[in-house]
Each structure stands twice: as C-alpha cells, then as structure tokens.
Amino acid sequence: MPRQKSSPPAENTTPETEDDAPVSPFGKEVLGGLERGLQVLTAFNANQRQMTLADIARAVDLPRATARRAVNTLEQMGYIASDGRLFRLTPKVLQLAAAYAASNQVTAFLQPVCEALSREFDEDCSAAVLDGLEAVRVAHASPPRFVSMVPGIGFRLPAWSSALGRSLLSGLPDKELSAAMARMKITPLTAHTITEPVALLKEIQSVRSNGYSLVDREAEEGFRSLAVPVRNIRGVTVAAINIGVRIESATPAKMRQRFLPQLQAAARTLEHQLL
User: Fold this and answer.
1) Domains of the chain: residue spans and CATH
2) Residue ranges in the chain modelled with pLDDT below 70
3) CA distances from 272 to 94, 175, 227, 230, 268 (A)
4) Distance between CA atoms of 259 and 263, rounded to whole angstroms?
5) 136, β-bridge pairs
6) pLDDT value of position 5
7) pTM of this prediction?
C-alpha cells in the first residue's frame, strides 16, 4: 500500500501584533493606534521642540516601525511637519486645545474672571484644573503694563508645589488624596519647596480649613502665589484661581490682605454658575 504524503503544516494565519507594539495598559477596548498617536503628540515639549524618528521612538517607548507609522499618520493629518529628518508640531495641534476650551464650561467662566482680577490688581491671574498630579492652567490674564513672561494656557505645574495645585488637591476626598500623595515623586523645585510628605499633607489640609493656599517661592524662585479653590453648585472643587506676584511686589501678609477677599468673592460667584 503506497505511503500517503503528509500534508504540509498549516500556515499560521494569526495576524501578528503591529510591530510587536506593547499591549495597551488600558485594556482590549482601547484603540492602540490612537493611543500611540497621542503619545507621540505629547512627547514634544520645551526641551524637545524637534525630534528625529529615533528620538520619538525612545520618548514614547515604542518600536521604531510603530513610531514611524504614528508619525506618518500625524504628518498626513497636518499635526506634525518635517524637514526630512527632524519632526515638529504644527499649529493645527492647537485645534485640540481650542476644542477643549470651547466645550468646557469651567474655562468659559474662568477666563473673564481672570481678566477682571488682572485688571483690578495689575498682576497675573490664572486658573487651573487638576490632571493627575499636575495643575493645568486653563485660563490666564496678564496686565497690560508689561509683556508677561509667565507661561499661558496649557502650562503645567506639579500640584504639590503650587498654590493652584494645593487648592485643587484640598478638594479631593481623604482616600483619593492619600492615593495621590502615594504616587507623588516629590523633588525640590527651589530651596524653599516642601518635600516632606507629612508637612505637605498639613499644608494641603490647611487649605480646607483656611480656604486658600499661599505658596512662597516653592514653585519658582522670586515668586509668590495665592490661590483659592473654585467649587461648583454641588460643592465639588472643579478648579482653582490665583494671583501671582514677584516677591518684591507684596509680602505674604499683604497678599492675604489685598488679594484674598476678591479671590474668594470671585470663587463664590462662580459656585452659583458651575454645574
């Protein structure tokens, strides 16, 4: 009886993971390509204004081929431009921020308040929301007497070292605040920065009882900031608003006397407007 030929092994038709890119930590229902594209966009910053493809791949911890496809997609969509070697963001990225600003109720109400307070005090006034462990500026106004060197909307500060951030952290329930502090990698930004967790917790808790945070040269040498929490109609802290000055402009006592009543009055007004 003739021997039957064995069939060739079945061809593996299982599609490979794209460039062996890591599985998203957010689960199966996450669109990996979109996640990687956003990782690429947020890899650019003040220290990395332009990057090569290899730089981008390292910054987002992705295989070079995966990073290349993400970059090519963003370039075709107009969010990234290239000279053939170096990639940079284009102004089209601002559409993403503009969409947030236009659709976010908090930003819409806070911007005119910041402008009014800046005119009244002739100082910088900002508002921020909490994003993870950072305070993100969503509204800002500077006095016309000088060209402000203070970064504008979108600027981020560690929540633990800024008056805006501590005001925001003070609104977290105790369990969430403890979890947030456990994740913090507290490093000194200046010689005055509080880095001891117990002392920092005490400062945050004092915002709850005093209704404001005053940070003196902790976030940046030569600057003081006074901030208050902004709550919505349900009493939930949704933002914070501050006045920032150079140390020669006002002492901490003067800041409390001059700025605090108006900041708190503005916060109370906003409380009745924010849902």
Assistant:
1) 18-92 (1.10.10.10), 104-271 (3.30.450.40)
2) 1-30, 145-151
3) 30, 27, 19, 11, 7
4) 6
5) 129, 156
6) 46
7) 0.76
